[in-house]
Each structure stands twice: as C-alpha cells, then as structure tokens.
Amino acid sequence: MQQAIGLANMAMSRKNWSAARYAISRARVLAEALPANVAVAERERLSAARKRFAARNTPAAKKAKQAKATATKPAGGKKPAPKKSTTKSTAKQPKPAPVRDLGDRFINRAALGYGPTNETR
User: Fold this and answer.
1) pTM reported for the whole predicted model
2) pLDDT digits (tens, 9 = 90+) for 53-85
3) Are the beta carbons of 23 and 4 closer than 8 angstroms?
C-alpha cells in the first residue's frame, strides 16, 4: 500500500496522470481489503493523494502553484535592470579572411597554358 501511494505521488509530480490514477486505484483496493483500524497513516496519505489528483487541472490548483512559486523567490528584493548604452550599436562586421602569403614560388605558367611552351627557367 505504501508503495502504491508512493508511485501515485511520483506519477503526479511527473504529471503522468494515467499512471497516477492506476496507482491510486491499487492503493484504494489494498486499503479496502484491510480492517479500518489498520494502516491509518497510509489511509491519510491516500486521501491526500486523491485530493491532489482531483485538483490537477482546477483553477484552485493553478493559483496554489502560482502562490508557491512567488513564495520561493529570493528575499533579496528586486535586482536593478542592466543599463542600456545610449550609443547605437552597429552591426558587427565580419573580419575578412587573412590573405595567404605564398612566398617566392615559381609557377610554371606554360604548363598551365598561359604562355609560350618553349621558355625555360
């Protein structure tokens, strides 16, 4: 029963509602099979899980989630917004590719078809 309730809570935290519904139904079957005076704490946990499952898409649940989110903000107060510069920022120009220096290499222009073929070095 504890395992089924734990699975239901874990499925609800992951918003896996079909798995949560199944785990709650398994826990309910186990709770009904036991006598009323046995596993009182588990019955209370099951009741809380049922309420949490029932309130998953209600406006009250959304308000509670928003209230919890605002309560967990840091206590330091608001941070000042960064100041914007007054000068207009120009679009960054890409740097031109570096020119490759090939050095003093001899290119045989005749072999490439650019000049007379009878010249030699």
Assistant:
1) 0.45
2) 888 777 766 776 677 767 665 556 667 777 776
3) yes
